[in-house]
Specification:
Blueprint: H1 20-40, H2 49-58, H3 89-97, H4 107-124, E1 127-141, E2 146-147, E3 151-152, H5 154-163, E4 168-176, H6 186-194, E5 197-206, E6 210-218, E7 222-229, E8 242-250, E9 253-261, H7 267-283, E10 288-293, H8 301-306, E11 311-312, H9 314-317, E12 335-340, E13 344-350, E14 362-374
Parallel strand pairs: 1-4, 9-10
Antiparallel strand pairs: 1-14, 2-3, 4-6, 5-6, 7-8, 8-9, 10-12, 11-12, 13-14
């Protein structure tokens, strides 16, 4: 039989297979330490967890220092050198930190574990919270950016809209790349000047990339948008119309916005378009606002049709007749803001005294209410 080396130090023993029952406790320790390291962001600088485990198993000290691990300072609680744990002690402390009911004397280990438990609890415990916010919406037919008798005046429109302090603007008669309006990108320009996101719905397409339609501007994030073409009855002076939809995030509460412009020369067209809009409104469960130039008076058949799914915001929150057209000699109300769905209530409506276009804008402040999960 070969003789043993002149020492009984286990490091000098010849390597060989270890019994399975001997390896299992070591594997459990390694797994526990790995879990703590992953959750707390690693060991403090200069602390070699692997060396401590090997030393704890062999009853010896590591023979070479290991380079410090760089971690964000907010995750590191540095311990004074005087209380640096002895070799092998760190591994025992980390393992103890995972075992319920076991005291962990080392503040450098205990605090990160407690902080981690608090962070996990905060992140995984979600509570419903009721959110109430005011949302001011403006609907405005801007006549392709032209001001009466003064040509293209997008800057004036931007200033007039800004003066209303609207959070959301629903626009009609908006151009993009039309020669008629100097190839301007009107939703992009107005959005940039007002600090708002924009969505555009092209309803009339002409050669050279010319587009004409509706737009939505929003101070709140626009989550998604889509344009739907409304029924079109051919005839002299008839024009394709559409319904532009955008969903915005109002401090966690999703709200649907719609901008439209109904046909001006045909009551049958307006009726067909109103019925198509009703189908969309009925299928939308969110709190919603529909605004636009309806080319119809409040008691007309198209407006009575829209009343099946939406509520005219003016009667409960505005004062007076609410006339919007024509802007310099008001005689009728054909521009509207309507609301629907739960969690939205009109608070105040007005017609700002702006005469740039042949229409005046209509403005309503709503209270929007919803339940969001706070984690």
């Amino acid at each position: 039989m070969p003789s043993l080396p002149p020492t009984d130090d286990p490091r000098h023993l010849a390597p060989g297979p270890r019994p399975l029952l001997t390896l299992l406790p070591v594997a459990a320790v390694l797994a526990s330490v790995a879990l703590v390291l992953a959750l707390t962001g690693g060991l403090p600088p200069g602390d070699d967890g692997g060396a401590d485990l090997r030393a704890a198993e062999a009853g010896t000290t590591p023979t070479a220092p290991v380079a410090a691990t760089t971690r964000p300072t907010q995750d590191v609680l540095e311990a004074p050198a005087a209380i640096e744990p002895a070799p092998g002690q760190r591994a025992r402390q980390l393992r103890a930190a995972l075992e319920p009911g076991t005291a962990v004397p080392d503040r450098q280990t205990a605090l990160p574990v407690r902080r981690l438990a608090r962070q996990v609890e905060e992140r995984t415990t979600c509570q419903p919270e009721t959110v109430e916010r005011e949302l001011t919406v403006l609907s405005y037919n801007i006549k392709s950016g032209f001001a009466s008798g003064r040509g293209l005046q997008l800057d004036d429109y931007a200033r007039a809209i800004a003066a209303t302090a609207a959070d959301v603007v629903l626009l009609q008669e908006v151009d993009r790349n039309r020669a008629f309006s100097r190839r301007t990108d009107q939703p992009g320009i107005l959005g940039a000047q007002l600090g708002m996101q924009n969505a555009f719905g092209a309803n009339v397409l002409r050669s050279g990339g010319s587009q004409y339609g509706t737009a939505i501007l929003s101070r709140f994030p626009i989550e998604e948008s889509a344009n739907r073409l409304l029924p079109f009855l051919p005839g002299k002076g008839m024009q394709q119309r559409g319904l532009l939809h955008a969903t915005i995030d109002v401090d966690g509460v999703p709200v649907s916005l719609y901008s439209t412009h109904l046909q001006n020369r045909s009551e049958p067209s307006r009726m067909a378009q109103a019925r198509a809009i009703n189908q969309v409104m009925a299928a939308d469960p969110l709190p919603k606002v529909l605004g636009g130039d309806m080319n119809a008076h409040p008691t007309s058949a198209p407006m009575r049709t829209l009343a099946a799914t939406m509520v005219d915001s003016w009667p409960s929150s505005g004062a007076g007749p609410g006339f919007t057209h024509p802007s310099v000699n008001l005689r009728g109300r054909i521009d509207y803001l309507l609301h629907g769905g739960s969690g939205i209530t009109p608070l105040a409506s007005s017609v700002p005294a702006v005469t740039l276009s042949d229409h005046r804008p209509v403005r309503t402040t709503y209270q929007v209410q919803g339940v969001v999960e706070t984690c």
